Each structure stands twice: as C-alpha cells, then as structure tokens.
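Colleagues,

For the teaching module next term, I've prepared a clean inverse folding example: a structure given as tokens, and then the sequence designed for it. I'd like students to try predicting residues themselves before seeing the answer, so please don't circulate the second half yet.
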C-alpha cells in the first residue's frame, strides 16, 4: 500500500481513513497565518456514502486505497437488485443491491457497460459513463403559452426514469443526460 503525504491527498484519489475507504471530493492546501500548512478535504465514505470534512496536517500520512475497477455488463433489475455479468462471459453473473448502485441506477439500460468498484471483495458501487443517450418513451405534448413555468416538462425515459426537459423534446426523441446530476444535456436525434 502506498502512503500519501498530506498534500498528495487530492480530488478523485481513493484513501483509507480510520479503516474505511474514502473518495476525496475536494482538497485545498493552505497556511493559516504563521501556522504549518494543512489540507482541508471533503471525503465521501465509499461504504456508507456519508460526506465528512477532515484536515490533514503536514506531519500526517494517509494510506492510498487499492480500488479495483472491473468492467461489467448490466443485465436487468429485479426485486431491489441490479444484475450484472462479465462482458466476455455471460455465465459469470452477480448482483449488487439497489442501495449500493444508488441514484445512477435509474439511467442503466440493458447491455450497457459500466465499471464496478471493488475494495478487496467488497463491492462499493458502480461508475457510470458521465453522459448516456436514452430514448423518451412518454412525453406530454407542448402546449402553446405553457412556458410560464420556465419552459420545461417531465418525461419518462426508456429506463423508467423521470427527468425535466425543454418543451421541444417529444416522445421518440433520443436525448443525452448527465448521469452525475441527472439533468438533460441535449437532444441527439430520433
């Protein structure tokens, strides 16, 4: 295991803190008046999902977490579990609980490839591509003069997810979505 100095704990690094794996969300190294420099960080616990703030001091070292990234093909969702398999061998199937997959699960389409994050044998979650293209299956027609609410409407995507989109998006359109924020990015086509 590699040990990181206080100033090497930067965004998107994985560390082990108090025996738990964390992802560094933000970090800022600064010096307060005549004191020694510190690295103020926000850490996301990869098991519980809880975000905490912690300041690493100049004398501290922290262990870098060994997070394995394994490609997986999404198959289907059933009874609160998401089922995946190896992209090359469909017989190697496994499930991940809905709580671990999180909110990004609503954008998973059958046969899409994702990255599974593993800490030892423990499945921490999945890394979805930042943008996905999904088809709109249900959309209310745009009504003239209905732009008082900001010109958006709620549509249902092929995965069953509901998102807000501009009024010009219609049923059958393919749209691009940011999976991290769950927001509409652009219309791709029909």
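(Answer key — instructors only)
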């Amino acid at each position: 295991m590699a040990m990181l100095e206080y100033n090497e704990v930067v965004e998107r690094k994985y560390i082990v803190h108090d025996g738990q794996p964390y992802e560094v969300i933000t970090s800022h190294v600064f010096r307060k008046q005549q004191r020694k420099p510190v690295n103020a960080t926000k850490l996301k616990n990869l098991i519980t999902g809880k975000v905490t703030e912690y300041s690493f001091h100049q004398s501290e070292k922290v262990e870098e977490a060994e997070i394995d990234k394994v490609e997986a093909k999404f198959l289907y969702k059933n009874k609160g579990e998401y089922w995946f398999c190896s992209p090359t061998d469909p017989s190697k199937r496994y499930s991940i609980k809905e709580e671990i997959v999180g909110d990004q699960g609503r954008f998973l389409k059958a046969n899409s490839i994702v990255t599974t994050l593993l800490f030892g044998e423990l499945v921490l979650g999945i890394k979805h591509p930042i943008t996905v293209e999904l088809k709109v299956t249900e959309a209310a027609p745009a009504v003239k003069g209905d732009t008082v609410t900001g010109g958006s409407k709620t549509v249902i995507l092929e995965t069953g997810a509901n998102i807000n989109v501009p009024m010009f998006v219609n049923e059958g359109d393919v749209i691009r979505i940011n999976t991290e924020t769950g927001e509409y990015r652009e219309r791709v086509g029909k």
